[in-house]
C-alpha cells in the first residue's frame, strides 16, 4: 500500500501560549529578546479526529520519540500553511519546535517563531489576534476500522508540524490526499531511521 500525506489540525492554547509550558529560559528570551513562543496541544492518540482518523498511541509515541532527535538537533522546522508536499521547504520555514512530549495520550509542545519572512507573517498574525492552530504532517497508509473510522497504520512517519488558520469546519483541514504518492521526506538521516527502528523494537519488548 502506497503512503499518502496525512494532515491533522489542533487548536492551541488561548492566545497561543500556555505560560506554564515555557521554561524560565524561554520566558527570559521573550522578555529580553522579544522572542515569540507558541505552545499547546499538538496531536492526540487513540481519539478520532474530525474525519474519524485515529492515530494509535504506540505509533504516535514512537514517532514523537524519533522527532525529539530533530528537536535536540534544532532541525524540527515547520511551515506556515500546509504545502502539498512531504518535503519541508526551508525558504518557507516559519518556526521551530523546541520542546515536545507526551502527556498520556496527548502530544504537547512548544515552538519558537523564527525571524524569517514566513515567521514574520506568523508573528504578525498572532499579534493581530488571529486564531491559529498547529497541524501535523506525515506520511503513512490507513485502513478502515469496524466502526467506519480510519486507523493510521504502522508505517506512519511524522514529518513536521505546520501552523494553519482555524477552518470554519475542522474537516476542511483534516483530509487525506488520496491517490497521490509522495517521496520519503529528506529531513531524516540514516541514524534517525535506525533510531526509529530501535525504539520500535524496544517498545515491543
Describe the fold and architecture.
This protein has 205 residues and is of the alpha+beta class. The protein has one domain. 25% of the residues lie in helices and 31% in strands. The chain is built from 4 helices and 10 strands; from the N terminus they run βαββαβββαββββα. The protein has helices spanning 24-33, 57-72, 117-127, 190-204; strands at residues 4-11, 37-44, 53-54, 77-79, 93-103, 106-113, 132-140, 142-144, 150-152, 157-165. The strands form 3 sheets. The protein has a 4-stranded antiparallel beta sheet with strand order 2-6-5-4. Strands 1-7-10 form a 3-stranded antiparallel beta sheet. A 3-stranded mixed beta sheet has the order 3-9-8, with no helix packed on it. Strand 5 (93-103) and strand 6 form a beta hairpin. Helix 2 packs antiparallel against helix 4 (190-204).
Mean pLDDT level: 79
**SSE string, helix = H, strand = E?**
EHEEHEEEHEEEEH
* Main sheet specs: 4 strands, antiparallel
SSE-based structural type: alpha+beta
Uncertain segments: 167-183
Helix content range: 25-40%
Short key terms for the protein model shown above:
205 residues, alpha+beta, four-stranded antiparallel sheet, three-stranded antiparallel sheet
How is this structure best summarized?
The protein has 205 residues and is of the alpha+beta class. Helices cover 25% and strands 31% of the residues.
Amino acid at each position: 500500500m502506497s503512503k499518502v500525506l496525512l494532515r491533522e489540525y489542533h487548536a492551541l492554547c488561548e492566545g497561543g501560549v500556555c505560560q506554564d509550558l515555557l521554561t524560565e529560559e524561554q520566558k527570559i528570551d521573550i522578555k529580553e529578546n522579544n522572542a515569540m513562543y507558541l505552545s499547546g496541544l499538538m496531536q492526540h492518540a487513540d481519539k478520532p479526529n474530525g474525519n474519524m482518523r485515529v492515530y494509535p498511541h504506540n505509533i504516535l509515541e514512537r514517532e514523537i520519540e524519533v522527532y525529539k532527535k530533530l528537536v535536540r538537533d534544532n532541525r524540527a522546522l515547520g511551515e506556515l500553511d500546509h504545502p502539498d508536499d512531504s518535503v519541508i521547504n526551508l525558504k518557507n520555514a516559519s518556526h521551530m519546535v523546541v520542546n515536545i512530549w507526551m502527556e498520556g495520550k496527548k502530544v504537547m509542545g512548544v515552538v519558537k517563531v523564527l525571524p524569517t519572512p514566513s515567521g514574520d507573517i506568523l508573528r504578525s498574525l498572532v499579534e493581530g489576534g488571529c486564531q491559529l492552530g498547529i497541524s501535523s504532517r506525515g506520511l503513512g497508509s490507513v485502513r478502515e476500522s469496524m466502526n467506519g473510522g480510519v486507523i493510521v497504520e504502522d508505517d506512519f512517519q511524522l514529518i513536521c508540524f505546520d501552523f494553519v488558520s482555524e477552518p470554519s469546519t475542522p474537516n476542511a483541514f483534516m483530509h487525506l490526499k488520496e491517490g497521490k504518492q509522495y517521496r520519503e521526506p529528506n529531513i531524516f538521516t540514516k541514524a534517525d531511521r535506525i533510531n526509529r527502528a530501535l525504539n520500535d523494537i524496544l517498545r515491543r519488548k
